[in-house]
Please model this.
Amino acid sequence: MRGARTLNVVRRVFIGLVIVFALAPLVWGVLTSLKPTQQILTQPPQWLPWPITFEHYIAVFQSSNLPQYMLNSLIVAAGATILALVVAMYGAYAGARLRFRGKSTVLMVVLMTSMVPGIAVLIPLYALSVRTGLYDSHLALVLVFAAWQMPMALWILRGFIEGLPHELEQAAMVDGCSRIGAFHRVILPNLRAGLGAAALIVFLFVWNDWLIASALVNSQDKTLLQVGLFQYIADTGVQWGRFMAYAIASSIPVIVLFLFLERSFVRGLTSGATKG
Amino acid sequence: MEPTMPTLLTEAPPEEAPVSAPARVNQPPRRSWSDRTFGFVLLSPAIALILLVAVVPIGLAIYFSLHATSYLEVRDFVGFENFQKMFADERFANSLGASLKYVLGSLVLAFGIALPLAASLVNGGKAISTIRAIIFLPWVISQVVTALLWVWILNPSFGPVAEILRSVGIAPIDALSSPSSAMVLLIVANVWASYPLATVLLLAAMQSVPDELYDAAAVDGCGPWKSFIHVTLPSIRSALGMTAINLTVYYFNMVTLIYTMTGGGPLRSTEVLSLRIYLEAFQNNQLASASAYGVIALLLNIAFAAAYIRVLRSSAEKGA
Model:
């Protein structure tokens, strides 16, 4: 029993250390963003901000294009999420419920493409978008992001549909629904958890992406949030209070989303990874 | 906005089911389309999107890599010249080495945290979801913000880490500007944002290990450590494999965190292959040679994907 108690202590200490590791950079960033400028560059560091000031947040919202960038990211992320989910859910239904030759090949290809890395196809996508005139448009971003995340969404949704009883559709079809009607009327309403989980992951990906957004868009009024943050760091002199305010402000929407919907996130991630 | 959608909605099977409503429950209604046609119609928008962002671009990347380009203009076919130049370039070997260090270092550290953490949390009771939410938080933070937060907390003059080092008598160095330590800090920042995913995946796998196995192990006199080795690890083997491959692919292809945190420096010590592609294309404007690098990266990714599918298949067979 002594061993078990020691193990328990070790366990708790370990969890405690990991929590410190997880929170320290965030907490230090938040503290910095709330400090008056002269308290930021001190040695030894001033640990707590006093008086607390919101000057950096106000400055960032007034003098940078943060609000515009947030709106752009919101529009593109919403568009990409809707497109990816609509395309993925029909494919997922076919993958989960229909039996036909060639299905497993198609599904394997879908899974493989979810592993095609952004960097490997970024150059051709850039060249393609310039040739087709889609370069520097939100439409290009919506298409690429949606296509990018669709395989992952399809994989998640297929897992969720497989978990639904066949009797659902059979009953609907007896009542006179076509197969697609049965999908719309009985499967979709029961797929809310899966759609929510997939939507969160797609949305988060788009909100946080810098690579694709920086390669495919270049005018200021179309810039997405992370690209905007990167430019802000490059263009402004070193002002850590401002940087941290920008970084925290740009992260708050996804942090809030995550804290409210943590369960859904986790369900999506684990179903995507553990379902064969 | 959704050019691929309308075809799907308009080509949906004709709604004639009411006319031919079947009498028996177990008999499917008469269908106008075979499963195969219907399946491909439902999958066609997905296939179109995949063609758009994966198949066509991969073909183009190979095409670029075999030609000379000046900016976006494709000139003469040059065969494998771009590849020969790349293999002769010391930056190629350097980037492969950096990638290897980055991926392996991150994997070791990520599993070093995630595995014991998942094992500590698996019987955590009610606190588990709160703790899981806290440790998961870094995962939702973008790579640009992650880089910024870590550069700031590691600041050798004004940061808390340097202050703690000073208080125990160690003189802090500017570790990000030294080639030997920059990679280490980069890995720490990377793992900070990525081990949560590994933890959640492993935790989910551990939670699905049946209790009876642990009971049996306890009857056989296994303590917590032994039952972890003999029950937990073998039961989550495929989850371990899939998580490792997922993380490998993710780490191997990262650009943003590295570009923002070190820019590949100092002295190219953190210039991994993926970053090399990016710099070659978007700083040097050498699309052809960047594509040659890209093709190599793609081949390595195919190897990772093949490994992933093998693990997936073997776990499916075992589960059946």
